[in-house]
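Hi there, hope your week has been kind to you so far. For a while now I've been wondering how a particular protein folds. I'm sending you its amino acid sequence along with the backbone structure tokens. Could you read through the record and tell me how the tokens relate to the sequence? Take your time with it, there's no hurry, and the full record follows here.
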Amino acid sequence: MPLLDAGLLGILQGLTELFPFSSLGLLVIFPRLMHLTVPTSGTSYLPFLVALHVGTATALIIYFWREWVRIIGGWLATLRGQPNAPGRLGWMLILGTIPAGLVGLLFKHDLARLFGKPLMAAIFLLVNGAIMLLGDYIARAPRTNRFGRLGWRDALTVGVMQILALIPGLSRSGATITGGIFTGLDFEDAAHFSFLLATPIILAAGLAELPKLHNGGVHGLLAPAIVGGVLAGITAWFAVRYLMRYFEVHRLTPFALISFALGLIGLVFLA
């Protein structure tokens, strides 16, 4: 894969993993539309995609590093029988990661086949827009939950929504923010939990897939993965900085409309 192509895909990943447009969907559609030299069929594309996601996760760790220090320290304290709020949040993040982690592990090869089906990804971008409109509709009801009061049912609800992100075209952030809205969180708190929840599952996928890139890996994707991952991380840092401010006062509808437009463009040019 040319490094220029890898860099373009890295920038696309950094933007669309956190902006709710489905990074997987666009990373399946974009190479086909632009005729990039990318092995999107089968499992050969998966380690490269995971490398881009790890770049995004690294940006999230850097942005939230103080909070992660408190969460990890608090979680370790709970293991010593010392309950505390950051440690409880750590358990909620673990619980929220389990559903998508199990589904991804059990159905990895079936899901990887979707990487070679850009038309299906375009269709799911339309579904993605509908999910976000549903989130905005639910948010009309009074918000009754708070970030610091998330319970195990709330974490599981958001975690189940995260399963949708395994399908190209369905946004992880869009689905999990909508899940947070469903539990009674406001947009800012739902986005906060969504961005924290992204890190564990991406790092777990990295541990499973990145070793395949060693010594040239699949189709010589190691160098492209490094370039793409670094650019994804840089782009994602600016994206999360913007979105944490955006969701203080704004909703998902603009992103839903853009997702509809991207899906329609994909259908028109791929059909």
